Fold this sequence. Notes:
- The structure holds two protein chains of two kinds.
- Chain A is α+β, with helices and mostly antiparallel strands.
- In chain A, strand 19 (659-664) and strand 20 form a beta hairpin.
- Mean pLDDT of chain B is 80; it is low at 115-124.
Amino acid sequence: MKKIININFQGRVIPIEESAYDILKYYIESLRKYFAGEEGRDEIINDIESRIAELFSDRLKRTSTCITDEDVNSVIAGIGRPEDLQEAEGSHTIPGTAATPSEADQAQYQHASQKSRRLYRSQNDKILGGVSAGLANFFGIDPSIMRLLFVLMLFMGFVGFFVYIVLWIVVPAKMLTSNVRKRLYRNPDNRMIGGVSGGIGAYLNIDAWIPRIIFLLPFIMAVFVNIFRNAWIMDFDRGPDFIFSGFGGTLFIIYIVLWIVLPEAVTATEKLEMRGEKVDLESIKKTVREDLESIKAKTDKFGGEVKERAQHFGQEIKQAGQSFTSQAAPIVRSSRSGLGHAIGVLFKAFFLFIAGIIVFALLMALAALLFSGVGAFPFKDFVLQGFWQNLLAWSTFLLFIGIPIVALLTWLIRRVIGVKSRNHYLGYTFGSLWIVGLVSAVILAGLVGGNFRSKTSVREEVPLTQPANGKLLVKVMDAKVRNYGGDWFGFDGDLPFFSQNEDSLTMNTVQVKLVKSDDSLYHIHAVKFSNGNSPAVAERLANRINFNVSQTDSFLYLPKGFIITQSEKFRNQQVMVIVEVPVGKRVEVDRNVDQYEWFSINMNRRRAWNSDWDERWNNSYYYNTDKEYVMTPGGLEETGKRPEAGRNGRFKLKIDEDGIEAEGDINPDESPEYRYDRNKRINRDTVIIFRKDSLSAPPIKKETSFQVKPGIEDTFSDSPTALYTLLKLFI
Amino acid sequence: MNIENTQSQMRKGILEFCILSIIRRGEAYPSDIVEEMKAANLNILEGTLYPLLTRLKNAEMLNYRWVESNSGPPRKYFLLTEKGESFYKELEETWNELANAVNTLAGKKDLHPSEDSQPSKETI
């Protein structure tokens, strides 16, 4: 009883016994090795395969339903095994390597395994001009090493580039076969990205994860360094650093260069060369058999369900067929090396780079969440209420945020080590745990949100002695109490609270608003806000806010903040200090009021602001700290401000029924305004302006004259002193 | 001196000439070439023929075209180029000279037939 597989062989579907397929595969592989030095190797193999396929389909048409071992053997006998061909062609191990028959004889006597006496460019193994492979052949070393040397020279300067170009022009091209036993390849059977690490591992005879870890090291380092340094700030600008800078950048570039320079070990011969094993027909057979067995092993591993088996059986055939046809295709060589490959790799590297940044950012974001969760841990008792909320918080924290990190790291490590388990239990476990976390997060958000559902305010009038000098200065009292400062376990002072001890928080969510007073008195109100799961609770919490304002003459002292305890919980408590300033009176807010933080959690706008809020307080005025303002009917006005017209040496002249009004930067010691009495007559049609230097001259020297119509305001650019003189004349 | 080796050397020398002479008569499919040579008592493996054809094609002695077949994918038929034609002419000339020479020499000395192989090797 034999298993029959269907293969797509040179465009024909051939049902073939599995053992016969193995024989065929060894045979093709041996031919490939035999013709390795031939220029038209791929074409020859292709032609022979076509012929075999034709013979097979003849055979299928005539007699049998599938190709058996005997069929394959008789076909092979007709075409000839490498040994037969060797006999038929004479004693030479490798057939002619020259392009034309006239050269063939000469070339046939030259053993390809010897070093070439002359320097040639390789015609069959090249990325650009085959210079590297030629040089390597000449010196008897791995072409990849030569290529790396050239790339290195390119980085150090353009000498390498010119050497290459000169060699490309001067040295003749020739078909060359490799003369080293061990070559550095990329390993397609053990690859995560480009197979570079797998190839290095195979070359050095070590596990592939060792070079892999080394290449990944900068990435891993960057992740850890960033977690510990920047987790709070979520500073993702630093992302690309790990690729572009220093050690990491070098390794990244080395990887890309290796990816471009190293060929992929596709055929059994190349795979043997990769491990430095002797290449002969026996070892090739062994390698091919191992290849097939590994595919079989993969298939056999999941026994059990028939369906699954069938599925993977199909996969095996697909895989086997793919590798077979890919080896048979004549284009295989050109797709593996050359400029196209280099460009392809660069594109892949670009996408790899982007993907790296995305994974990096993802890890960073999750880690930041996790660590800020740890950082917020002492704060949780101020938010959460009762056992269930705490439980949900833990579940959210560990499952919703922790699981993706663990999953991502697990995935990365397994990729690196190359563990390929078909076991989905881990995935299912992670998935369901994460969903538990997600549900916890949603419920927790709902519960905590419920605690913030209602918002209410309580208003408290602060008794005030009217300041004698008509000015009120608002200041934050210098606290004698020592605080831990704004940093709460590493928070960068971003949060609106200080800690005093484990059980209490000092909140500084305070805002000072300046509004216009209805009467001629200053009034101070402290409006306290709080959220809660019901208006009653919110009001109770608001009432418990202790915000003591004190006054010393014209100084109004505000406390640094207010204290909430663990029993009160944090429910977005805030205090708004309303300062009502009467018209004509002055007010100044000290710079240290800027220390207050203000933020607002608006769970539901409709239910907020439901009590104790005076509508006219909505008309508050914008102010800067450390600036004196005076309240006018139109709002706050900064005092001591220079009039507009005085700037840049310009002054304003206004002539109307009242007389002449002039504004300008005339003399800092004098008042900037001049007004001419309406009862004194002046010639309103003509204004004569004198320059300063003409003062000593006869009193009236006509310098410039303007026709200024009454009722017109105009701005002139002239010496202010001239205006001064003018006004002196009239007054 | 290995007799088989010498024989194969001799055959090898004329192989290209034979193949070209078959293709010269009209475009040919490789397996037909094998059949024809077999019929002429000159056995050749297909595995030997394909590389030869490819080499000749790369040297522009031969060309090929795809001919549709009624059973499967199109087949490669080989035909002679002008360069191949003149190459063939030269080979033919050499062959006639050689055949003459060998026949003359071999006809003269009947006693040592194995000496035939000596001059033929030089012609390769």
